[in-house]
């Protein structure tokens, strides 16, 4: 079935009309070949961006968004290979790519639609991962990526590193892990780091909360991070790119600030801007799929891509359910992502009472929407193949046909139908005639980060245990 805007016929689509071709080469095939040849280049593109004025820390009050720097500046390009890092900003494009740029590439977009047979067809996936102060969760993220059974040489990874705090080493670790992964040495590296930590006795108290998580959950995690691993596990990905660009932060450090509903709206718009920037920079005509994934997921089925794709004859965007474990004294587990929902009469009525620019945020008393949240209709025994149609989606894990973005949908960085970012992406995508699916009983698990209160309760319980033992 064709939608407006897709290429209707098997005609060639010249992308670089200015160049006279000497030969018609499909540069893409060549690239695939290169990956297979196992000499792996991680290309790091650093879009260095002039920092906004130093006033954003001090004036942490919420203003409108006009102070956000919308200007891009100098572009830095680094090639990372097994031999190290190469700055190619001065010489411009590397020689090899220069040659490729002279070739004309033809794409008939009808071939890049995405369908349930994508894996067998060799359809390529763009994996987009936004990161901020993510140093700690990078090992989880990489283990989850390695665990993907979709052929790694069909996946291009695009990381976006933005607005990290001083002293955070997301960029360094990301580079290190990316190179190791592409060399097939990441598993050793991560295992090595883990045993080094253990030897230093660093586990101990910081992981105390593990004793309070449900036993079956903890065992499941242990198994998920232990051998045997499947064949694809240590294979390099088709490419890895790292984009670095700051988008500014609107949020002051105060707790109340962070939770104010208005701040949430502005925060979501900034995140929308970051996502849009990443996808516009990284999406290529040969991508059939885009998979958005947050870094702080603990476990997720290895075949999540293939599985979500199974629903693509009827749906264009597909999301799993996202839960997180809880200490047993808090009830074992909990819905995590409340942004995937089915619109309600009450929600629509509520929107009519709001200003055009107001953003409805789920989970706040100010905005009683009475919507059905994907997270709340999950059951342990539920049919994993059950599907519900959604209106809003959360950003933790979104599989989307690439054509959804190609045809102009995005993560609105302004208020659209009283929503922003991923929820507005849902509304916008649906308005454009696409269909969105949520799988209520197919679950991925977000990490549990103990709150201050939880930590207090845990140390109280620990003291009690010790007293009991001493008696
Ligand atoms: C890896 O995939 C397996 C099989 O789907 C799954 O059971 C396991 O939890 C996954 N591991 C991680 C770290 O998510």
UniProtKB/TrEMBL annotation:
Gene Ontology process terms (BP): cell wall mannoprotein biosynthetic process; protein N-linked glycosylation
GO MF term set: alpha-1,6-mannosyltransferase activity
InterPro entries per the UniProt record, alphabetical: Mannan_Polymerase_Subunit (IPR052086), Nucleotide-diphossugar_trans (IPR029044)
Keywords for this protein: Membrane, Transmembrane, Transmembrane helix
GO cellular component: mannan polymerase complex
Transmembrane spans: 32-50
Family: Belongs to the ANP1/MMN9/VAN1 family.
Record protein name field: Unnamed protein product
Organism: Ambrosiozyma monospora
């Amino acid at each position: 079935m064709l939608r407006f805007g897709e290429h209707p016929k098997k005609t060639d689509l010249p992308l670089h009309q200015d160049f006279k071709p000497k030969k018609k080469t499909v540069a893409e095939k060549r690239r695939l070949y290169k990956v297979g040849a196992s000499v792996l280049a991680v290309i790091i593109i650093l879009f260095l961006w002039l920092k906004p004025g130093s006033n954003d820390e001090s004036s942490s009050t919420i203003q409108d968004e006009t102070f956000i720097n919308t200007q891009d500046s100098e572009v830095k390009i680094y090639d990372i290979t097994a031999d190290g890092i190469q700055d190619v900003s001065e010489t411009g494009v590397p020689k090899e790519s220069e040659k490729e740029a002279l070739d004309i590439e033809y794409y008939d977009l009808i071939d890049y639609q995405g369908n349930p047979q994508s894996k067998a067809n060799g359809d390529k996936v763009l994996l987009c991962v936004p990161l901020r102060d993510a140093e700690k969760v990078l090992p989880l993220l990489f283990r989850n990526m390695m665990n993907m059974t979709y052929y790694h040489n069909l996946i291009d990874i695009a990381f976006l590193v933005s607005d990290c705090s001083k002293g955070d080493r997301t960029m360094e670790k990301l580079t290190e892990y990316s190179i190791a992964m592409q060399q097939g040495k990441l598993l050793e590296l991560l295992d090595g780091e883990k045993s080094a930590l253990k030897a230093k006795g660093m586990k101990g108290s910081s992981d105390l909360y593990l004793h309070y998580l449900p036993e079956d959950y903890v065992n499941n995690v242990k198994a998920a991070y232990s051998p045997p691993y499947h064949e694809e596990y240590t294979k390099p990905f088709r490419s890895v790119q790292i984009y670095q660009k700051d988008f500014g932060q609107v949020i002051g450090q105060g707790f109340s600030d962070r939770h104010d509903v208005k701040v949430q709206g502005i925060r979501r718009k900034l995140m929308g801007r970051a996502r849009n920037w990443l996808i516009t920079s990284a999406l290529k005509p040969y991508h059939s799929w885009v998979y958005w994934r947050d870094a702080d997921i603990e476990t997720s089925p290895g075949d999540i891509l293939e599985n979500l794709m199974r629903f693509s004859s009827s749906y264009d965007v597909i999301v799993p359910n996202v839960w997180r474990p809880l200490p047993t004294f808090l009830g074992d587990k909990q819905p995590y992502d409340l942004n995937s929902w089915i619109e309600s009469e009450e929600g629509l009525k509520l929107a009519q009472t709001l200003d055009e620019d107001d953003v409805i945020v789920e989970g706040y008393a100010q905005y009683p929407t009475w919507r059905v949240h994907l997270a709340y209709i999950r059951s342990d025994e539920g049919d994993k193949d059950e599907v519900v149609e959604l209106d809003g989606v959360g950003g933790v894990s979104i599989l989307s046909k690439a054509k959804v973005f190609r045809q102009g949908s995005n993560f609105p960085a302004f208020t659209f139908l009283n929503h922003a970012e991923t929820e507005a992406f849902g509304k916008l995508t649906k308005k454009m005639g696409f269909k969105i699916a949520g799988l209520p009983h197919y679950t991925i698990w977000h990490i549990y980060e103990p709150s201050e209160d939880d930590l207090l309760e845990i140390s109280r319980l620990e003291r009690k245990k010790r007293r009991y033992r001493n008696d």
